[in-house]
Amino acid sequence: MTNTEALKELIYKMADDQLILGHRNSEWTGFGPLLEEDIAFSSMAQDKVGQSYALYQILNDLGEGDPDTVAFMRNADQFHNSQLVELPNGEYDFSLVRHFLFDTAEAIRFQMLTNCSHEPLAQLANKIKGELRYHTMHADIWIKQLGRATEESVSKLQDSLDRLIPYAIGVFEPSPMEDQIIEDKIFEGEGKLRQQWEEAILVVKSKTPLNLPYFSLVKPV
Amino acid sequence: MESLDPRVNRLNLSTTELTSKAPLDQLGTYEVFSQLKEDKPYFHVGPVHAPNCEMAFLFAKEQFSRRQTCTGLFVVETRNIKVSVFTEGEDTVYNYISNPGELANGNTESFELFHLKKRGKQHEYIGTIEASSAEVALSMVKSEFINDKPVYNIWIIKTSDIESSQDEDKIIWDTLPDKKFRDAIAYKAADKIKEFKERQ
């Protein structure tokens, strides 16, 4: 028997992260660095909002409110999102690095959730695998491109990385019901996710001259 | 000479007597080809600006496979497409293609062939040919791919110049059929307009 409260907590956290970042990223619509990228980044922002909608629907089926009401009518302190996703946009390097750090984690998280004991969540994870594949492909290629292009592009990415890594690690804050979540085979846990995320980030980083801190020494925000 | 208008600054107007003409500060273009269903031929869908093939593919995916369905996509740098003469009416391009001078001289490569079958439509994949050059490939095509209908233009692309989607990445189009909100037809405006008119 799955602990519904633990499950809901996890879904709220994921859905709120996606909803907020989807909106943050959509602020670039019409202002992207080039037309093609403007369209690609906006589409991915749209994917995020769509994925959060699907999660709110699962919550709705578990007895929570109507998805639109939950998404737009809550007070700020009722949101479960990480600080990483809500930071205001700066220049494009900032959004790109956030996209890279967050979406890498998100893709691994949903990959792990394809084995979720809550069937609707496992189904959703399978369904959006392809969307997430494109998101990480997009992030990796951009980081590789700008991460070895010019002195300016490398230093801008580096500054954003330095600033965002502590926030990115904050995404892996364990739930108050983490043990229950793992025990019920809902999700393998934030610890395991973080470990795989660190490995994935290092693979992309290794193709550039960018520097990363020792993850274990970073204080999460 | 700095102008407040960025368009003027982009002209790179010379300040000395003789200088080399500066290239335009913009990325090159890549042509995008897409396949709607597994058994359908690839056809040309349009260009994207990009610094390299990899990024061109990234942009092409959201630029040209946002709607309907898609099972494959490839990009090729615009200047790597060899273009034949254009014809009109009943006149087929193949009337203007000479026979090959020398056919087999050892080293061959594979080339992809595309036909324009209707003016205003897009080039569509016809077949692949092994030849020593694009010119020889074109002359070899004749017998194999021509039927009664005129062909108005031919594109030939060296297969190795193509950056194509990988089979394992095809899942990136999985949810495309669900994105009806990207089509105008998904917004049932007609009913609302009718209702509005009736109220007038």
Number of helices, counting only DSSP H or I runs of 4 residues or more of chain A: 10
Q: How much is the average pLDDT of chain B?
A: 88
Major β-sheet profile of chain B: 4 strands, antiparallel
Oligomerization status of the protein chains? heterodimer
The CATH superfamily of chain A is known as: Ferritin, core subunit, four-helix bundle
Percentage beta strand of chain A:
under 5%
Q: Helix count of chain B, per DSSP?
A: 4
What fraction, in percent, of the residue positions of chain A are helical? 55-70%
Average pLDDT level of chain A: 96
User: What string gives the helices and strands of chain B in order?
Assistant: HEEHEEEEHEEH
Structural classification of chain A: mainly alpha
**What is the rounded Rg of chain A?**
17 Å
Strand order of the largest sheet of chain B: 2-1-3-8
Span from first to last CA of chain A? 34 Å
Outline type of chain B: extended
3D shape of chain A: globular
Low-confidence stretches of chain B: none
CATH architecture title of chain A: Up-down Bundle
- What's the number of extended β-strand segments of chain B? 8
Name the descriptors:
heterodimer, A: 221 residues, mainly alpha, Ferritin, 68% helix, globular, B: 200 residues, alpha+beta, four-stranded antiparallel beta sheet, 4 helices, 25% strand
Describe the protein in words.
The complex is a heterodimer of chains A (221) and B (200). With 221 residues, chain A is mostly helical. Chain A has one domain (4-217): Ferritin, core subunit, four-helix bundle (Ferritin, Up-down Bundle). Helix content of chain A is 68%, strand content 0%. Chain A has ten helices and no strands. Chain A has helices at 4-26, 35-61, 67-72, 83-86, 92-113, 119-127, 129-146, 151-170, 178-183, 190-205. In chain A, helix 5 (92-113) crosses helix 10 (190-205). Chain A is globular and about 50 Å long. The mean pLDDT of chain B is 88. Helices cover 20% and strands 25% of the residues of chain B. Chain B has helices at residues 6-9, 53-64, 134-145, 189-199, and strands spanning 28-35, 43-50, 72-77, 81-83, 109-116, 124-131, 153-158, 162-164. By secondary structure, chain B is α+β, with helices and mostly antiparallel strands. Chain B has a four-stranded antiparallel β-sheet, with helices on one face. Chain B has a four-stranded antiparallel β-sheet with strand order 4-7-5-6, with helices on one face. Chain B has one domain (24-173). Chains A and B meet through helix 2 and helix 7 of A and strand 2 and helix 2 of B.
